Amino acid sequence: MSLIVKDLHAGIEGNEIIKGLSLEVPKGEVHAIMGPNGSGKSTLSKVISGHTDYAVKSGSVTLDGEDLLEMEIDERSRAGLFLAFQYPAEVPGVSNANFIRAALQSRLPKGKELDAVAYYKDLYSKMDALGIDRKFTARSVNEGFSGGEKKRNEVLQMMMLDPKYCVMDETDSGLDIDALKVVAQGVNSMRSPDRGFLIITHYQRLLDYIEPDHVHVLAGGKIVRSGGKELALELEARGYDFLKEETLTTA
User: For residues 114 and 105, is the Cβ–Cβ distance under 8 A?
Assistant: First the structure.
C-alpha cells in the first residue's frame, strides 16, 4: 500500500515544471524531498492534492491502488490524503473548532453525528500536546496567526483528521527553532506503520527532528538523487551546485 507517482509530467499555464517524476511512498515510511527553488517541489504537492491551476500532461498518481488524478479534491481527502500548505490560508468567520469538526463530520456515514464531548476531549488533548492555547478554538482559522501558529494549526488539523498519507509542503518555512521542534514532535507522534509521509523542505534542519527513511533530490522537474538521511547532510554541506552536472546527464 503506497502513494505512487509514476512518470509524471505536469505544470501550470502551459509551462511544464514536473518532467517525468517517479516516486513511491509506502505506508510506514517518511520520505523527504529537497531541491533548489524552481525545481518543482511545491508543484508536486499541488498536483497530488488536486489544485485546479495545475494540469497533468501525462503519468499517474495512485493512492493504495486508486487513481488519485480521477478524484475531486474532497474525494482525495476522504481517501486519506492530507496536504499541509507552505502558506496556510486564512478562513475568516469560521472558527478552528467548527472547521475541524465539519471536516470530521463529512467523513462519517450519512445520518451519523459526531460525538461533541469526545470531539472536544480529543481536540484539547492534541492542542495541549502542540502548545496551542485552547482559546484558539474560537478564533477564525489562521486569521491573525503568526507563521508558527499557522503551522502548528495545520499539524493540529492533520492529527485530528488522521490521514493515511501526509504531504507537507515546506512546513518548516518561517518557523523559529522552538516552533520547529513542536511541529516535528507532532509529526513524530503520528509516525505509524499505517501512515506515510512526504516531507518537502529546503533545509536539512527539519530532518534533524524528523528523521527520514529516504531523501530524494528534485532538480529540473525530476528526481536526480535518492539516498538515506546522509544525503540531506551532503546537500547541507555542498549546496545544490553539484547537482547541475547530474541534472544535465539525466535530462
Answer: yes
- Cα 158–chain centre separation: 9
Tell me the sheet residues that pair with 63: 3, 66
- β-bridge partners, 21: 8
- Per-residue pLDDT at 174 exceeds 80: no
Q: Which ranges constitute the DSSP H helices of 115-208?
A: 116-130, 147-161, 177-190
194's grid cell:
499505517
Q: Where are the domains of the chain?
A: 2-89+165-250
Least Cα distance to 226 among 29, 10, 34, 26 occurs for: 34
3-state helix, strand, coil in the chain (%, to 5): 40, 30, 30
Inter-CA distances, 97 with 143, 152, 235, 249, Å? 14, 14, 40, 51
> What gap in Å lies between CA 29 and CA 211, rounded to an integer?
10
Long-range contacts at 130-133 (CB < 8 A, ≥ 24 apart): 130/155, 130/156, 130/159, 130/182, 130/183, 130/185, 130/186, 131/182, 132/156
2.40.10.350, 3.40.50.300, 3.30.160.270, 3.40.50.2300: CATH of 2-89+165-250:
3.40.50.300
Per-residue pLDDT tens over the stretch 194-245: 999 999 987 788 888 999 999 999 988 999 989 988 888 888 777 777 665 5
DSSP code for 146: -
